[in-house]
Amino acid sequence: MRTDNFSTAVVKLLTGALGALVLAGCATTIPVTDTQQPEITLIVTGPGVGRQQMTDPPKDSWTGPGGVQLFDLKPNTVYRFTLTVSDQGGAARAQLRMPVSFTVTELAPATVVQVADSISRSLTLQGSRANPVTGLIISGSFRTPDTGSGLSFEFQTEGDDFGGASGRPNQRFMNVSASVGAH
Ligand SMILES: [Ca+2]
């Protein structure tokens, strides 16, 4: 039994490693025609939420029961996040938006562009048509603001592909509702 469990664990580890390789973006070829939207996965880990993973498909809008916020973040607290955009025809763009009052650190890779306006902070990673890969990954940490009265918002994500050799990019959007609790 112990051996079986060990074998299962090894298989899971290997599967996970393979999955990570695929997600990390293997070189691919942009097909002549691509009408398939990318897949988006957002993972948030940290105090009070454990590990939350949201994907599209199946859902482009994630809310809690009855439409309330899916999860509640603590004020002035650091969380880890990972956004992955996967597309066999080449991932062209990954973007994550959050409230401008959030601060972002440990952002990777170095080519992620961070832009803040009066409302939101956006993190964008561009793929390369010259060197297309199957996945774009943005990772980092954010610190929630010390809101006082609380804040409701959505993490807004976008994933684009190249749309094949000459087509329009296929876009996918996923929104995840969350809040920062009052204190
Ligand atoms: Ca595609």
Provide structural commentary.
This protein is mainly beta and 183 residues long. It has a single domain (2-180), classed as Immunoglobulin-like (Sandwich). Helices cover 12% and strands 46% of the residues. It has one helix at residues 2-23; strands spanning 39-46, 50-56, 61-62, 71-73, 78-86, 91-99, 103-108, 113-116, 120-126, 135-143, 151-161, 171-180. Strands 3, 4, 6, 8, 9, 11 and 12 form a seven-stranded mixed sheet that branches.
Topology:
Blueprint: H1 2-23, E1 39-46, E2 50-56, E3 61-62, E4 71-73, E5 78-86, E6 91-99, E7 103-108, E8 113-116, E9 120-126, E10 135-143, E11 151-161, E12 171-180
Parallel strand pairs: 3-12, 4-12
Antiparallel strand pairs: 1-2, 1-5, 5-10, 6-9, 6-11, 7-10, 8-9, 11-12
The structure holds calcium ion (CA).
Residues 34, 36, 38, 87, 89, 161, 170 line the site of calcium ion (CA).
Structural descriptors:
single chain, 183 residues, mainly beta, Immunoglobulin-like, 5-stranded antiparallel sheet, 1 helix, 12% helix, elongated, binds calcium ion
In short:
The protein has 183 residues and is mainly β. It contains 1 helix and 12 strands.
